[in-house]
Prior knowledge:
Radius of gyration: 18 Å
Mean pLDDT: 80
Number of helices: 12
Order of helices and strands: HHHHHHHHHHHH
Distance between the termini: 24 Å
Strand content: under 5%
Structural class: mainly alpha
Helix content: 55-70%
Amino acid sequence: MSMVALWVMVAQLSTASVPVAADTIVVANARKPQPAPTAVTTRDQVPFDAGRFDSLTANALRLLFDDAAEMGLPVRPLINRALEGAARRTASDRILKVVREHAIALQRAKRTLGAQSTEDELEAGAIALRAGLDDRALETVRASRPVGQAVVPLVVLTDIVRRGVPVSNARDAVNQLARTPRSDDILLGLQALVAKNAQRGPGMAVDALNRYVKGAGSLAPSSPATTDRKPVRPPDT
């Protein structure tokens, strides 16, 4: 399940952001041979549109993309951020700064979540790190979920932290709920509840989270997990 499919409801609970670029990317004019395909490099790809940047910025971005590819990192999220910046008419130095910081976050997420993590997991992990979560939070999610199944808890964890829940409370809650039967539905319920109560202040969000976790045993749905209810992507920083 792709991150785009998982996060299509972002406008409903989070501040609307400029739509990301196409869901596929490729590194143009790579300086060195690319790594063998892995879980994070096997998607269909489209070109980096260098024409949307001045020549100096485009060349600097290519160098960043090439370096990321050489380290086995997914390059799609980096190109998407560059294109988002261009769409917003962001200054070139700011675009380069954001892309560079996100590349560092992707590398850190790969180290923490594991080299076999999917592109979607690494992207969710990088966003979590840039939102202020630490390596321990990512390690906790990975311990609760096998490779390929950590996206929902990572997205929910990031969102509820951004809504004012302390990292330790959010981490412990998501870790506990991620291990329950049909945990994706339960985690999505937590995300919606925190979003609703956060409007009344962080304290109310934490109280709602604590009550929800305590009653998690009775909250497991009796029907199979739905496929149309998706986690809401927290806005990027």
